[in-house]
Amino acid sequence: MTPGVGGFVLTPATGLSHPPELAGEAAWLRGALGPATGCLLPPGAGIELRLDPEALPAEGYRLEVTAAGVDLCGGSPAGVFAGLQTLRQLLPTDVFRRGRVRDGAWSMPACLIEDAPAFRWRGVMLDVARHFVPKQDVLRFVDLLAAHRLNVLHLHLTDDQGWRIEVPGWPRLTSVGAWRTASMRGARQHERFDEKPHGGFYTGDDLREIVAYAADRHITVVPEIDLPAHVQAAVAAYPSLGAVPVDGVRTRWGGLSDGVLAPTEEALGFCRDVLAEVCAIFPSRYVCVGGDEVPTGPWERMGHPDPGSLGGWFVAELAKMLAAHGRVVFGWDEVLAGGAAVPSDALIGGWRAEHGTIVAARAGFDVVACPDMSVYFDYRQGDGADEPIPVGPLLTLADVYAFRPVPSVLTAEEGARILGGQAQIWTEHMDSVRRIDYMAFPRMCAFAEAVWSGPGDFAEFTERLTSAHLARLDALGVEYRPLDGPHPWQTRPDAPGFPKSRAEREAELLELTENIRGGTVG
Fold this sequence. Notes:
Blueprint: E1 2-10, E2 15-17, H1 23-37, E3 46-51, E4 61-66, E5 69-74, H2 77-90, E6 106-115, E7 121-127, H3 135-147, E8 152-156, E9 158-159, E10 162-163, H4 172-175, E11 179-180, E12 198-199, H5 204-215, E13 220-227, H6 232-237, H7 265-281, E14 286-290, H8 297-301, H9 310-323, E15 328-332, E16 347-350, H10 355-362, E17 366-369, H11 372-375, E18 391-392, H12 397-401, H13 412-415, E19 418-425, H14 433-440, H15 443-453, H16 458-476, E20 498-499, H17 502-512, H18 514-517
GO molecular function: beta-N-acetylhexosaminidase activity
Catalytic activity: Hydrolysis of terminal non-reducing N-acetyl-D-hexosamine residues in N-acetyl-beta-D-hexosaminides
Protein name: beta-N-acetylhexosaminidase
C-alpha cells in the first residue's frame, strides 16, 4: 500500500461507473455500502470499476484512491471483487453494519494498492452434518468468507451423524437419516449425552440458492458426500445398503463406525443417484467423496474375500461416476493407501499433518493442503481451564498464521501441485452459529492472510487485528474468541474436553500415515 495526501469522501452524490461485465460487482458494492452510509451510488462519477486482464492476474487488482475519486481495476471480475473488499476496509468501521448508526461524511485515505493472491484455492470446510447449520447461517458464513477474500466453501453434507441433502427417489435419507435422537456433550471419552433430538436438511433449492449466492461473491461451493464409510445415517435409512446392520443414526462422535456401504450393485446404484443429484446442483469441477477412515471390519464380517481392497475399489468406482458427469473426484489422503486405483487427475486433501500433502504431491496429484496441526478449527485455542470443550492439540492464532500450504521439503515442481490451503471446521462441538464464530474467529482471519499474502510478520498482523479488524467483526456481529480467552458466556463447564499435546498427536499421525509414507503410492 502506498499512502497519499488527502483522500476521497463518499457522499450521497457519489456515483459509480462500470462496464456491463461488472454489473454484479457494482450491485454488490451498492448493497454493501448503501444501508450503512446512505450512499446509493447511482450511475456517475466518483468510483470507477474497470477490467484489464492483460496487465493484472485474474484475481489481482489495482486500487487507487485520490481526492478526485476511486479507480479500481481487476484482472477479472473476481479481481475487482477482491479489490472491493479492500475498498470497504478503507472506510470507517461502521460501514460493516447493516444500517445507519451515524451521519456525516465517509472518507477513505488516499492510497495506491496493488495486490494478488498467493494461492488460487483459499477454502474453508464447514461441517453441516454433525450439527446442522440452517440455510440463513450458511449464507451469513458465505459473506464472512467473501469479506476475507476466501474463494471456496467446502460443504461436508453427510456423515454418520446426519444426512443433509435431499435425493430424488431416496426420501428416507432425510425423513430418517437427517435426524438423531441425541448428541454427545463434550469429548466422546466422557460418554455424556444430552438426550435432545437434533437434525435438519437442505432442499435442492436451498442448496441452489447457496451456490448462486456464493457464486455472486466469487466463491465456489464444493460438496462432500462421504463414501463408502461415514454413511451410518444413510444405512439407518436404508439398511440393505450397509455391509452390516447399524443401530440408527449415530449419536456418538469420533472413532470408526459400522456404517459402511456393502460392495453391491444396489449400493453402487445408490451412489450413482446421489452423485447425479449432487452434480445437478453444484457446478463445482470437484466433488469430494471423502474416502477416509474406512474400516474393513464390516466387510470381513459379511465374508468378503478381500476386504482390504474394497475402500480403493469404491473410490475408483465413484471417480468413474463423477467423470461421466464431467467432474473430478476429490478425496482425503487416505485414498492413497493400499495401491488404490486413484485417477491421475484426482484432487487430494492432505489433512494428516503434512504427510498426506507431501505424499500426494510427490505422486503427481494436485493437492489442497489442510493439515490438522495447522488449520483444524475444532482444536483448542488455549491452555486455560475455561476454554470450551478443549480437544486435540493446541492451535493458537500464531500457529494458524504460520501455516504454509507448501511443505518446505517439496521441490519447486512438487510444490506447484499444491493449489492452496483449506481450514476445517468440524462441528461435533459447535452446536450453533455462536459456537462456530468462537472457534473460527479470529483464527480464520489469520488463515485468510496466510493463503492470500503468504509469509508475514505475526506481530504486525496482530497489531492490525486489534487496532482495526476486530472492530469490523464486532460490526458484522461475529462472536469471536477474545485474544486473552473466552468471555464467561463462551465457556462450557458442562461439556468436558480431552486435550492432547502436539507430541501425542504427531505420534498418532506417524502411525496413521505409515501405509502411505511407506512407498505404496507414487
